[in-house]
Amino acid sequence: MPRKTISTEFAPQAIGTYSQAVRSGNTVYLSGQIPLDPATMNMVEGDIRDHIRRVFDNLAAVAEASGGSLAQVVKLNVFLTDLGNFAAVNKVMADYFSEPYPARAAIGVAALPKGASVEMDAIIVLD
Q: What sign for the dihedral angle of Cα 39, 45, 46, 48?
């Protein structure tokens, strides 16, 4: 199956040797997103909820560039430098997702790129 890279100006540009997403068949693998403003490539200001929203907005932009949406996420990985922010993820996630919710993992990590407190990646299956 041929692979197709996905790119959009509405999400932060890759800051390394990776693509924003790769589509293989009807499956799209979205790279990790941190709370970078795509226009400035700077971290957004605000509290953890603002950071989580920016991450979901970035993921949504890449999903849309692939022809999909967050509604098609089947797997979501959440990386947090403070697992005490897990409840905030659930609260904000409810604004972006409805049932059936995707499978999800939440992983506590020591550090993330650019000092981010949250990063997420996802897999979507296009209908």
A: positive
Any idea what DSSP says for residue 100? S
Domain boundaries 3-125, corresponding CATH code: 3.30.1330.40
The model's pLDDT over 66-82, given as tens digits with 9 standing for 90+, comes to 999 999 999 999 999 99
Q: Is 118 buried (19+), middle (13-18) or exposed (0-12) by CB count in 10 A?
A: buried
CB-count exposure of residue 101 (10 Å: 0-12, 13-18, 19+): exposed
pTM score: 0.96
109 close to 81: Cβ distance less than 8 angstroms: yes
